[in-house]
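sorry to bug you again but im stuck and you know this stuff better than me. below you get a single protein, a line of residues and a line of whole numbers that encode the local backbone shape. mainly i need to know what kind of three dimensional shape the backbone takes. anything you notice is useful, everything is just below:

***
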Amino acid sequence: MLESLAQVLGMPDFLLRAVLGGMGIALLAGPLGCFVVWRRMAYFGETLTHSAFLGVGLGLLLHVEPMIGVAAMGAVIAVILARRHPAEGLAEDTLLGLLAHSSLALGLVLLAFMEDVRVDLFAYLFGDILALSGSELLWIGLADVVGLLLLASMWQGLLAMTVHELLAAVEGRRVMALRLGFMLVLAVFVALAMKLVGILLTVSMLIIPAAAARRLARTPLQMAMGAVLVGMLATGLGLAASMQWDTPAGPSMVVAAAALFVVMMLFPRRG
């Protein structure tokens, strides 16, 4: 079906899969990125992306899809951080740094021991959206449906936590469940976005569109919808630039998002 649609649109089928995959990722990245920006969780996102290397190594070691290994590793990190009490042990930024860099180093060491497995580190670092398969596109679609439904169900609770977490708990919000649910959705997003823009650039697709949309938004919902639109536009512009000038597709999408952010900064801030 995609091949027929690609012929109608006059584009190669691999490019159509890339466009649809990028749009799907932007659809989930929009609302997720807003909460990452509001709650200042960029370093947590970096920790999840760094741990992806360990997930890739474990996936290859256990002969399962690396994306599943990345999602599982992200879920473990999410549970560790969600269940941690702020008054216990290490400061949060210290713990995040410990988890991020130790998991990254352990993943690289694990990959080095698997001499019979050839790993394209460049693709994992910067993505390979033009090689997106039909099955991976289906996974992105499924993650969009499940992730957006979960975020919709948690939306008011997450907003309350963003304003004041202790007050949200006093109001009867299930703070622990909300925090864990959000982190798990974020872990799944990292596993999917790794294929498109790579481990090093995944967090940028969360932060940059949300930061750009924040400039013109008056309400949280407007910001989330604006972030989706900016992410989708960055996908289209980045892929067009990649095809025109033969540049890496994933980094081109991030550059396009950054350019849109600069343009948004020229407008007076609303609200």
Notes: The CA atoms of residues 59 and 66 lie 5 Å apart.
